[in-house]
Structure formats: C-alpha cells, structure tokens
Amino acid sequence: MGRDEHRRTALAMVAPGTALRDGLERIVRGNTGALVVVGCDAVVQAICSGGFDLDTDFSATRLRELAKMDGAIVLDQAARRILRAAVQLVPDPRLPTSESGTRHRTAERTARQTGFPVITVSKSMRTIAVFAAGERYVLEDSAALLARAHQELDTLERYRRRLDEVTRVLTALEIEDRATVADIALVVQQLELVRRVTDAVAGYLVELGTDAGLLRLQLDELTAGTRRQRELLLRDYEPDTAEPGSQPAARAADRLAALDADALADLRAVAATIGLERPGDPAGKVSPRGYRVLGQIPRLAPELSDRLILQFGGLQKLLSASAQDLWQVPGLDPALAATIRDGLSRVAEAALLDRYP
Fold it and tell me: Is residue 200 pLDDT above 60, yes or no?
C-alpha cells in the first residue's frame, strides 16, 4: 500500500457517518481527551503496558466511556472491536517526533513503530488528529471541506472543457496526418491536469464520508473516459523501441505523475516524459498508431485493436484500408470488418466536420 493510499485508508475510518467518527465526536463534546490505536499485532502488544483486555464489539458510546479513563484504547484493524483499554503505550523513545504534548508524542511514535493509524483527541484544543504514514492530519469541519471540494470541482470542469477542445483538434489533425509534438503534448498535459484535480477531489470525498452527498456523481460525470483516453493516447505514441510486454505507456503515466508543476507547464518536458521522438521540436510531425481512434468505435474489443494495428502499422493505413483489407486480420469476419470500416469513416467525418464546419 502506497503512502497516500495508507493515509486515505486511515482517514476513511474516521469519515463522517462512521461509528468511529461518532465516538470521537462524542469524546470532543464530552470535553475529554483520548488516544486510540487502530490495529493490533505483536508490535502493538509489546509496547502496551497495564490496562485490561476487553475484546468486545465497538460502539461509539463504549469508546466515549472508556476515554474517560487514563490510558490508550486499542481497536482491531477494522475498528469493529475494542481489544484493550486504559493501557500505557511505551513506544521506542529514539523514534523522531515533532510533537510537544505527551499524548501526541506518544501517538506519533506509536504510529511510526507499528504502522497502524493512531488517533488523538485533544481536550484543550477540542481537535481530532490522525497519525498515519508518517504524517499528522487534523480532521476539519465538513463545511470547510465541502467548500474546497466544490472549488476543485469548478476547476476540474474548466480543465475538462479545455481537454475536450484540444482532444477534438488532435483527432482532426491525426486524421489529416498533421499532428505535431506540441499538439500531442498539449493533450497529455491537459489529461494529467484533470487527473491531478480528480485525485484532489477524491481525497476530499474520502474525508467527507456520508457528507459528500452528490459530489461523487459529479466527479464521475466530469472524469468519465479520461483514464482510458490517457492510456490509449500514450499507447499511440509510445517509442517504437519499447520491448514487448514492457508496458511503456504505464511507465510514461508514472513519470507524468512525478512531474512538478513547472515541468508539467513545459510542453517540451511533457513530450520528453512520454517518449516522443524529437521532443525539443514542437513542430515536428508525429503519426499515431491508431489506438485512440479505434477506441471510439463502440464495442471493439482491445485485442482486435491490437491485431489491426499490428497488421496495418498506423492510423493512416487503417483509414485507407477497405472492408476487404480489414477482413484479412485474424479474428475478423466480413460483418465486423464492415462495422469497423464504417466506424472509422464516421470518426474521421465527425472530427473533420467539427474542425471545419
């Protein structure tokens, strides 16, 4: 599990609507503090001292009552059972911590040593903090999170409109065999911007839990098809020298995700990241294999797209092929070949009419 995924998993446990969040908020309202470890194994047992075993079903009211006692509460990893209460945690004092209070220092060191999320409720500050993946995250009010999530959705909507615009232009240029390095890099850049904002909104949805309302539906609508579009575009322009089975498109996507904001704004850097030839020549012409255009034909299986591209070698030869030519590809019958021929013609016609109405 990656660092970010580990953090989001921990935050999902304490999202609004969960029993654990209910219990923590009861502790805040009761003006008491708490220290809760979510997970138990041999490492956790080794740093626990004193207290007593419970092994009982979790409930918000039980958590609230147990928090009135001194010491930490230990839950199972799913936060469905309370395993121990009133224990003293004695993590390795050599572990680094940036916290000042005793409870929070113990929480950070315990999280680092065990790898399990540790939750603190501050009596004086009336805040809930989650220590996970080496970070401390203070839970925020749902209203503030909703406001930021809506701002991100507005940004995502603008990016999606821009993506659709540059994608339509690229399709027409590919049909005419006039696509350049800059045209391709621009679409890849917009796809990565959409992915990053999507990831940010998804993080808010995790924290909001049941308070997210219809945000998830809005997010799904705005991002529909973008993941597949990126995959097909990267496959269209992956280097010819790529070894079979090496998944260069997936590696290119990982490299894009690692670019900082300045590099992502530089189309030359984007072109070099995805492996385009002559990335320093924005006007250099590049011809696609045809995966993205074939992807616009309904119900065309991916393995058939692979065979078509292997047989014809590129989009331009696919566009000029007749139904009889397509029929020679293994796995295609005359009816399917005619369907693909009609589909390619419709995609080409729609792209050119959109560009030259």
Answer: yes
CATH number of this structure's domain 142-288, picked from the four choices 1.20.1260.110, 3.40.50.720, 1.10.630.10, 3.30.300.30: 1.20.1260.110
- CATH architecture, range 3-139: 3-Layer(aba) Sandwich (3.40)
Residues whose CB falls within 8 Å of the CB of residue 47, separated by 6 or more in sequence, listed in order: 89, 90, 91, 92, 110, 113, 114
Would you say the CATH fold of 142-288 matches that of 3-139? Answer: no
- The residue ranges of every structural domain in the chain are 3-139, 142-288, 289-357
String of DSSP letters for 84-116: EEEEEE---TTS-----SHHHHHHHHHHHHH-S
Q: Which helix (H) or strand (E) covers residue 52, if one does?
A: strand 52-57
| pLDDT value of position 269 | 96
pLDDT tens for 128-171 read 999 998 899 999 989 999 999 999 999 999 999 999 999 999 99
Q: Are 290 and 309 in contact (CB under 8 A)?
A: yes
**The pLDDT value given to residue 241:** 64
Tokens coding 226: 């973008």
pTM of the model: 0.87
For the chain, the 3-state helix, strand and coil shares in percent, each to the nearest 5, are 55, 10, 30
Give the pLDDT band of residue 24 (cuts 50, 70, 90): very high
Least Cα distance to 137 among 152, 120, 125, 150 occurs for 120
| pLDDT averaged over every residue in the chain | 93
The Cα–Cα gap between 146 and 141 comes to 9
Residue 198's nearest CA partner among 235, 217, 223, 166 is: 223
pLDDT exceeds cutoff 80 at 243: no
- What is the DSSP secondary structure assignment for residue 342, as one 8-state letter? H
Does 289-357 carry CATH code 1.20.1530.20? Answer: no
The pLDDT of residue 245: 54
